[in-house]
Every structure is written in structure tokens, then in C-alpha cells.
Amino acid sequence: MRSTYDQLGDLKGVLAGIRRLRGVSEPRPGIFYLGQVPFLHFHRKDGARWADVRSGRDWGPPILIPSNIGEGARVELLRTVRRRHGETLTALAARRARRRPGAG
Predict the structure, then answer these.
(1) C-alpha closest to that of 71 among 20, 28, 11
(2) CA neighbor of 25 nearest in space, from 14, 36, 10
(3) How far apart are CA 83 and CA 79, in angstroms?
(4) I need a surface site. Which of 14, 49, 61, 90 has the fewest CB within 10 A?
(5) Do residues 50 and 88 lie in contact, with contact meaning Cβ atoms separated by under 8 Å?
(6) Cβ pair 58, 46 in contact under 8 A
(7) Which residues touch 22 (CB under 8 Å, ≥6 apart)?
(8) Model confidence over 10-30: pLDDT tens digits?
């Protein structure tokens, strides 16, 4: 089940960092796209919380997010999201290059 925005209150700094990433939009609170491609969203089920974050062309492994997340874990979460953002930008650019007339 997708997390509601009010369940992400302890991630305000992380969300602000995600919003600053190049090409990222947030069409609904807590749901992020990179261009027209879904990039990141949050889930909560049976007391567990995680983020699904694209990593290149596909979804990467879920990122577990503790309920009582500390500052160090928030920093690491944003670092991981930034890394996957770069991987996804690279994959999207390669896909666009393959689709150009006369490419490859």
C-alpha cells in the first residue's frame, strides 16, 4: 500500500533533497517522476516502510526506511536516491539516443 504524504513527515529533509534533483517532478505529494518516467514512491504495510526507487531502466531493490529514522539514515537514504537518480538519467539518455533517427 502506498504511503500517504502525512506518513512521510519525518522525511521532510529527504523529500526536499529529492525535489531539488534535476528533472524530478512531484505530480502528487510523495510520488516523484523523472521526466515522464515514475522514479520514486513510498510504501507502508504491516508496520514496515520502504521506498521503491528506479535504478537505471528498472526498479532497484526496495530501500527499507525505519519508522524512527535517525539523521544518519536520512543522509544515507538521500545519498542512495541521488546515486539511483544518476543511474536513471544515464539510462534515459541512452534510450533517447537509441531512438534518434540515424542513431546506432
Answers:
(1) 11
(2) 36
(3) 6
(4) 61
(5) no
(6) no
(7) 85, 89
(8) 999 999 999 999 999 999 999
* % of the chain surpassing 90 pLDDT: 84
Q: Running DSSP on this structure, what letter comes out for residue 4?
A: P
Closest CA to 67 of 1, 25, 5, 8: 8
Grid cell locating 10: 519525518
Name the stretches of the chain with pLDDT < 70.
Answer: 100, 102-104
Q: What angle do CA 79, 70, 7 make, to 5 degrees?
A: 90
Cell of 86: 544518476
Residue type at position 94: A
Distance of CA 34 to the CA centre of its chain: 9
Give me the residue label for grid cell 531539488: 20
